[in-house]
Amino acid sequence: MQTEKLNEPLALLENSVALKDGEVQILDEEKVRENIQRLVEAAVLGEGDLRFTARYLVRKIALALDVVPASIHDLYMARGRGEVPNTFTTPAINLRGLSFYAARKVFEIIQEIEAGALIFELARSETGYTDQRPTEYTANILGAAIAEGYTGPVFIQGDHYQVSPSKYATQPDAELQAVRDLTKEAIKAGYFNIDIDTSTLVDLSKETVPEQQELNSKLSAMFADFIRDIEPEGVTVSVGGEIGEVGGHNTTEEELRAYVDQFNAIIGPDVAGLSKISIQTGTSHGGVVLPDGSLAEVSIDFDTLQHLGKVCRESYGIGGTVQHGASTLPEDAFNEFVEAEALEVHLATNFQNIMFDHLPEEMVKEMYALVDEDHASKRKADQTDDQFYYKNRKRVLGDFKAKIWGLPEELKEEISQAWEEQFRNLFDRLSIAGTQKYVDKFIKPVKVEPKLEDYFLGDVEPEDTSDLAD
Fold this sequence. Notes:
alpha/beta
């Protein structure tokens, strides 16, 4: 029987958990929290079936301890109705390496400051180059919550589930199916928040704005309808849309209205629609790197962010606007997101930078050598070494996952402390302290029991995501 395969991961918990008729029984909660890191490590690095059974068991233990993957949809819709104040901006955090360690710090802090509005996420591109399938990423996040004694809803999100324009141009059906497959895998793993991104297919050569947004709206609605068909009973997955790809021109009200009006017309009034919309206001994913490796200052159009958020709420009853590509902005910019009433801001690159700043020099040299070997084709003629490595070092994180996990505990603690300082600063500037009361009021998480067979994925062939956003 397949359940017999659970004996190996159970042994890592030193008799603190038992299985009876397929259900988890917590025998010693304190010992579970002490040993959950061993199970998460097996979920990340285990050989053969162990990594799959460990991921499944983390999810089962989390549910038994009231750590519940959840959708943020109802909180965002309440904000759209004016029942939640526009006084905080939800951070959506992408963790590309040592995810368990970083997430532990997040859970430690949010319990201290009573913050509930926070999302963990991973993009389609990141899923590939960090070698973190949804079941693995969920195990990292839920395992961290268990270790820190957190209970309640945990918001995990598929970020930028994006359609590759190059693949869509040559094999549209196969590319759309790839996004469907990943979405289905993610929802089964406990990602109950999905950001659809077909903004790559906006055609600015069309004469009118509705025509430019037509394919984006059509495919967004198609994916949203697909999500509604497969979401677990009792769960309304939070679905986000995107109007303009990050790095392009700033989004206009006309574009927002054209996108949402067409989306709503397709999906109809009886199907839950979008809870938020990502717009472009002047940033770039990962920041703009100067020849010396430093980051250029970026000017964000906060007026556009605020105005379009108001349009979202007042005209469509949805939570508001989302800012991508923000983690490398100056610290004082984050206060302005709250002042501009931004609903959500996505943060990734700076957490990665903090980790690289603490990695052993020899390991970084090895990583850069692999970047040279495997990704030389991505080098632009006018790029300096600093620019090239900064933009592409993320692409070898999956190759070095085991080595990074194998760093001395004292060094991983040093990285964690640096993350803690950054998290505390961001959470303060985004004003999420005290938001637990809004989550408690509007979010009623449903315990969706995982199926063991959904965790036996086998080795998934990595896809080329070089033209996708993070």
